[in-house]
Amino acid sequence: MKRNNCQGLPSRMPDNTAFQQQQLPACRPSLTARAVLPGFFATGVSFLGMGILLILSAKSVKEIEITYTDLCSNCSKLRENASNFYKECTCSIPFFIPEKMPGNVYMYYKLHNFYQNYRRYIISRNNRQLLGEDNTDVENCAPFQRASNDRPIAPCGAIANSMFNDTILLSYYPNSSTGINVPLLSSEITWWTDKHVKFQNPKSSNLSSAFAGTAKPPYWRKPVYQLDQENPENNGFLNNDFIVWMRVAALPTFKKLYRRIHRIQQFADGLPAGNYSLDISYNFPVTVFKGEKGVVLSTATWSGGKNFFLGVAYTATGAMTWLAAFSLMAVHLKLKKKKASFQC
Amino acid sequence: MFCGEKKLLETERRVKANDREFNEKFQYANNRIHTSKYNVLTFLPINLFEQFQRVANAYFLFLLILQLIPEISSLSWFTTIVPLVLVLTITAVKDATDDFFRHKSDNQVNNRLSEVLINGRLQSEKWMNVKAGDIIKLENNQFVAADLLLLSSSEPHGLCYIETAELDGETNLKVRHALPVTSELGADISRLAEFDGVVTCEPPNNKLDKFTGDLAWKDNKYPLNNEKIILRGCVLRNSSWCFGMVIFAGPDTKLMQNSGRTKFKRTSIDRLMNTLVLWIFGFLVCMGIILAIGNSIWEHQVGDYFQAFLFRDEVVKNPIFSGFLTFWSYIIILNTVVPISLYVSVEVIRLGHSHFINWDRKMYYSKRETLAEARTTTLNEELGQIEYVFSDKTGTLTQNIMTFNKCSINGRTYGEIYDNLGRKIEINEKTKPVDFSFNPQADSKFQFYDHSLIESIKLGDPKVHEFFRLLALCHTVMPEEKNEGKLIYQVQSPDEGALVTAARNFGFIFKSRTPETITVEEMGKVVTYRLLAFLDFNNIRKRMSVIVQNPEGQIKLYCKGADTILFEKLHPSNEELMTLTSDHLSEFGGEGLRTLAIAYRDLNEEYFKEWFKLLEEASRGLDMRDERIAAAYEEIERDMMLLGATAIEDKLQDGVIETIASLSLANIKIWVLTGDKQETAMNIGYSCNMLTDDMNEVFVISGQTAAEVWEELKKAKQLLFERSTGFTNGYAFCEKLQELKLGSTVEETVTGDYALIINGHSLGYALEANLQNEFLEIACICKTVICCRVTPLQKAQVVELVKTHRKAVTLAIGDGANDISMIKSAHIGVGISGQEGMQAVLASDYSFAQFRYLQRLLLVHGRWSYFRMCKFLCYFFYKNFAFTLVHFWFGFFCGFSAQIALDTSYWTVINHVFIWGSIAVYFSILFTMHSDGIFDIFPNQFPFVGNARHSLTQKSTWLVILLTTVVSVMPVITFRFLKVDLYPTLSDQVRQLQRAQDKATPLKSHKRQPRRTSSRRSGYAFAHQEGYGELITSGKNMRVKNLPTSGLGKTMYNSTSWIENLCKKTTDTVNSFSPDRTVKL
């Protein structure tokens, strides 16, 4: 509100607001010993506690990693030659779980030396196509835009084309003769937003007609609408494995979630200890780029997987803070004495 | 020296009156002025060209071009173009508005009307159409349109009065007079139209008080000098009209030649920023090269195998070439280390600071409703870096109001008020002034607080009556009866005006004068005195006297003058009174008042007649005339009786003393540059405590030749060193010597306070190349520097000198047109607004109404701006490095493929576009961008849906954030704590003390008594010219109607010679102060 001066004209005097007069309340913490030292001690205590907690929980995670590139060397060799593209190659790897893996158990596949973070690779996709809006939109998908017959590739691009296509089955051997297939779930392995927002199938009565007029990516054995023979819902762009693959990894060595153990029957409490085997249909070539691949079985806790970094970092920071607090206290006390003698 | 290269060719100007065809041959500039930079057509190209000269803009243009190449482009093009266009537009709009206002003010000036004689008729013509050689008519109180040769005027003998405040800041009237041959033309239009004289003169230059040329007319040649020239920017006063012939027009006028060119001002932060940006750019190139090499190696060793999943582009088959392309891609990606938004953000922050200045209530002057205004928004943080302040005097430090403040009459002081206990009371706005309502002629503006004086007058104390009678009689003021019988005094020196006005209010009203009489109304009774002789003022005599005869036939000599001179002329019987008055004078002087001593002498008629004969003889004589007249004056001005003394206050603006004191505490040096006389300037120096008695030495440099100036400077320097070495004891001396050897500057070795006073003439030499270093060295050691009698250009030169040789940040503050060049050349120019002239404000970067606001501007706004800007820059660079280095490290993991690790595309857009937006805006946009809806619309542009949601639900994300925060903050706190604990800075200690005091009971505030202890007596400083006495006694400056019809008049001198006398004397005074006779500027 402008006040009026005697002539009735609005006064030009600036408004007296705290902001305009730069009188907003401000606070500058004064770093006195009384404030700093307790703060340091408290931080140190809480960090040490948190670090120990994190280490303990990471320790409780059971994890098994099986790299099978070399274990299935014959398959690896076979895949090195592109002419053997349609030849099946399976490989069975027995392994032993010494301890019971309690709770939810997750199965990952792990790739080494695969540069999913390479720029030209990452940009080689088309989100509009993946959203089911326009199958023919293959912009940015170079070098996998169109097949030789000039049909648009669906899904187009280098990422989709290089999709991990090994199938991995897990069998449990309670005794040496009979094996039970461990029930695996492929649902809920994707981000919710990916499954419900980012990826949509083209609208049509059935999937095969929806993708009519498109070509499959050259490295794929089956077209996109036949990815999952057992579950018709899990096909097209909404295939879970496909969605997981399309979320590119940040580092050249990465693992992606493949399956969850279905907790029924004897697996209700997780994987019991004992003999297992992996039955792999080996399709994905990795030796051509000097890569490796493997399977990881892991449980999880609230803090994530078997990762000690965070716990160690917290512990170290807590320890450092304590150290700092003690040295600060020493400096402060010594100095205070000196100062006091000065003033007298 | 001359404006423009074209004009360099002009060695002589020939202008023929009333002959446009003749003058067109020379293509002299017409009277249109341009201060604007662009017009509608040239704006875009010129402005863009200027803008792309900024390194940053050019760099981002280059980036934009890079991004348009698809093989290289790692970011989408709009991340650069949006901010770039934004920056360019904002700057262009600002430039355009600035220029629009310049156009507007140009237009306003160019379209002013003046009466021009065209084809034998007076016509109204716009200023811009006036050409050299035209004859124009000026009326009273009009601004002069161009530099004119005065032809004739309404006043007798072709005299006219001008005020030159716009040019040199002096408010006294100055006299100009036409050649006798041309003044005969009068207002006769037909004869003026026939006038065809040819003026030959020097080419346009910027020397305000010099003009040489001649007028050829009717086969005769008449020399012309500065006394016949009226300059553009002056105002005609007290003369109803005058005619003049245009010699210099528009850009050639001395006013325009004196206005320095507008320079683009930049702050030191700007320069630092540019250097930093260059270094960072180098750093960026290094990173680019490292990553490019890495890419070549990776493509060679790893990329080959990876072709199974990603065929190579045809173009990037060769790893080396791929590395080359990667280099450019990384230049684009990592460009955020050299952020364009830095420049935008800095500008925005500065804009905000400017608003804080505009909003500040503590810099708002309520009396004139004037706000402080930051006219340039880009210089705020420089305010915190000022080392030198150059201040004008008149109107800046002082109010340019002289008030009769105190007096000492017959050994008693008046003007101070005491309470019942005899204690002195501070005079403030609540103090009740003396009521002058009994006197209908009193000037309502005059205020006096001591009631005892008016009582003394009413009681009829003869000494007091004599005192005011003297003030009413002994002066050169011209009265003017305005309508309603109101009396207006035309003064040519404000001091005299104050004295005569005081006398008027106390009942001794100076009514009118003729060459022989002075009419005064004394306490309601009109008395006419015969003026027998007028003993004029000059710089050597430092006094003036009148000899008058009252109606009773008594002859008296009334004299006022500098106390030092006057005390020698007193009758021995005055010894006691003299000591008493002397004490009072010291007291007045100590308060910074200007003092005058006042005395009279009774003369008997025989003695006077004898003396008058002597004087007449002296004035008739041809040789040694001046000396003989002076001797005659000496003869009669003796054995005088002391009446008392007056004290005039050259009123300082409010708070000047405190402001100067606190600025000095902040180690800011204040130099006063004034066009005033040395005495006046020194006086102000004392009254605002810049000069004090405690000073070890005050150097006055007033040499007339280069050698003299050099000598004086050398002496001053010697003294400085002797003093400094003399004061220190042996041990300290050794230390000092060691310091000297270690390369410390001279200033540090000099102890004690010194002051330097230099006048314009000497300054001219001191600024020459061979002396300027010497001058600067001494000036910078001195605590106070006062330059008087300086021209506008010299002001700028002094500023320029300090600016270039000291590498210091300078600020110039002034109010008048004569300060413009200084304001423009200093790093920061401040204009005092709310006064009559606006030129200084228009040229300035900041403007406010009172000098005292400088303190807040520099010490609060400047400091805060600087702090904030530094913090911002540190944070900004940190932020960019943190953000960019992530990409650098990620390059090692993604095959150096220039893949971005974070979603820069949106990150940059947001950061750039909404940099001024709050965090709320930032996050709301961010979440919108992450929303499903926006992805549905632009799936290819916004592919990051779900990222934030998923990563922020991870517990480990938050744990990592917490960890990094603590890890980053902890060392800083440790460091700061140790610093405060071990080596507390001054402000830390102050804060600690404050806290301690807050806990204790609040202390009682001590009231400071601003009492000066100066014993210095301020000098007699009449700011007026010699020669007015003759004007008055000859009666030539009085209107015909005022002249008495009776032939009583007996002029002192031969009436034909008075004008030459005046001429000679005025030029003498001018020459003795003006530097241009021998100085090459």
TrEMBL record, chain A:
Compartments it resides in: Membrane
Top-level taxonomic group: Eukaryota
Keyword Transmembrane helix (UniProt): yes
GO biological process: phospholipid translocation
InterPro entries attached to this UniProt entry: CDC50/LEM3_fam
Entry annotated with the keyword Transmembrane helix: yes
Keywords of this entry: Glycoprotein, Membrane, Transmembrane, Transmembrane helix
Main location: membrane
This protein's GO CC annotations: endoplasmic reticulum; Golgi apparatus; plasma membrane
Residue stretches spanning the membrane: 35-56, 308-331
Family assignment from sequence similarity: Belongs to the CDC50/LEM3 family.
Protein name as catalogued: Cell cycle control protein
Record organism: Phascolarctos cinereus
Automatic annotation (TrEMBL), chain B:
Active site residues of this protein: D392
GO molecular function list: ATP binding; ATP hydrolysis activity; magnesium ion binding; phosphatidylcholine flippase activity
EC numbers: 7.6.2.1
Cross-referenced Gene3D superfamilies: Calcium-transporting ATPase, cytoplasmic domain N, Calcium-transporting ATPase, cytoplasmic transduction domain A, HAD superfamily/HAD-like
KW Membrane (keyword) present: yes
Cofactor: Mg(2+)
One GO-annotated biological process of the protein: Golgi organization
Biased composition (Basic residues): 1004-1015
Binding-site list for ATP: D392, K393, T394, E496, F537, K560, R594, T674, G675, D676, R789, K795, N818, D819
Main location: membrane
CDD domains: P-type_ATPase_APLT_Dnf-like
InterPro entries: ATPase_P-typ_cyto_dom_N, ATPase_P-typ_P_site, ATPase_P-typ_TM_dom_sf, ATPase_P-typ_transduc_dom_A_sf, HAD-like_sf, HAD_sf, P-type_ATPase_IV, P-type_ATPase_N
Domain P-type ATPase C-terminal: from-to ranges: 841-901
GO terms for cellular component: plasma membrane; trans-Golgi network
Reactions performed catalytically: ATP + H2O + phospholipidSide 1 = ADP + phosphate + phospholipidSide 2
SUPFAM superfamilies: Calcium ATPase, transduction domain A (SSF81653), Calcium ATPase, transmembrane domain M (SSF81665), HAD-like (SSF56784), Metal cation-transporting ATPase, ATP-binding domain N (SSF81660)
Descriptive protein name: Phospholipid-transporting ATPase
Source species: Phascolarctos cinereus (Koala)
Record lineage: Eukaryota, Metazoa, Chordata, Craniata, Vertebrata
